[in-house]
Amino acid sequence: MSRLVVETRGVAEWRSRLADPTKQWKRGYSAFEVAVAWEGSASGKSGMPLSILGLLDQHKGVFPNPKLIVGIVEHKVELPGGKHPSQNDVWALVRVGQDLLSLAIEAKAGESFADLISVWKEKKEPGSDKPKRLDYLKDVLGISKVDVDDVRYQLLHRTASALIEAERVGAKYAAMIVQSFRNPHRKSDPKKLIFDFQTFARKFGASAEENQLVPAGKCRDIQLYLGWVTCDPATDAEVAAKLEAAKKRIPA
After folding, report:
1. Which residue of 43, 66, 84, 85 has the fewest C-beta atoms within 10 A of its own C-beta?
2. Closest alpha carbon to 130 in 165, 79, 201, 88
3. What is the 8-class DSSP label of residue 110?
């Protein structure tokens, strides 16, 4: 995995980093909506969407004056025991006062969190060592003795990626935030997704609610937070403005 990053020139460049650019790049889908949200906030005071900033502001004593240092699109974090890394929709390194926050963003617009751990363990994948990976993830998260069969696998590795990167850069804090976009065209029940998130948070003794950021204990001397924020999808005017801004940033 390369540690080199290239500056984006607008929302369209996010598309090229997707696993399936054709299927995932549509209005109302999480990949598109998170791109518009973050690109639209990059030039602001904090460099982050107001929805994310609002969660951090719930803990102003811990996260004073948060400012984005760097945000990486589709950031991959390598994990042992398999071929596939944890691919964050956005990974952000945020300055909070005199400290650093490693922030993993999992964007949703009605899409599920995929398999439960109990189902994931039973699926055969060539070249993978699932017991090794699961043990590693639980160790990173500080829940080695906790039964996680009823947890969605995606939540487990995405949160671990925030902690792994926090340790790598020397951050005092780590957070995994689900940035959920309302999507009336999808048939999935948003309450079910929130239930999955709450089930995961309880493994840390945390009581999680929609539009809240909650502490979830210390893992390897790094304070972990878990959050969920529900956002409106981008308006036609917002999308048009971001596309027009991107044109101006692309050299002739």
Report:
1. 43
2. 79
3. S
Query: Which two structure tokens, joined as six digits, stand for 19?
Result: 């696993």
Distance, in Å, from the CA atom of 174 to the CA atom of 192, rounded to the nearest integer, reads 25
Distance CA 190, CA 234 (A): 18
Q: How many helices (H) and strands (E) does the chain have?
A: 9, 6
Query: Using one digit for the tens of pLDDT, what is the confidence trace for 69-99?
Result: 999 999 999 999 988 999 999 999 999 999 9
Q: What's the rounded Cα separation, in Å, for the pair 69 and 58?
A: 20
- pTM for the model stands at 0.91
- Given phi > 0 = left and psi -120 to 50 = alpha, else beta, which region is 98? alpha
Contact 178, 227 (CB under 8 A): yes
Give pLDDT tens digits for 175-232. 999 999 998 666 667 789 999 999 999 999 999 999 999 999 999 899 999 999 999 9
Structure tokens at 108: 């949703």
Return the beta strands (E) in the chain as ranges: 67-77, 86-96, 99-108, 173-181, 212-219, 222-231
Residue among 151, 160, 238, 180 nearest 55 (CA): 180
Side-chain-facing half-sphere of 10: CA atoms under 13 Å: 15
Helix or strand run (H / E) with residue 65: none
Please give the Cα distance from 101 to 53 (Å, whole number): 13
CB distance 158 to 104 below 8 Å: yes
User: Which tokens go with 206?
Assistant: 């945390």
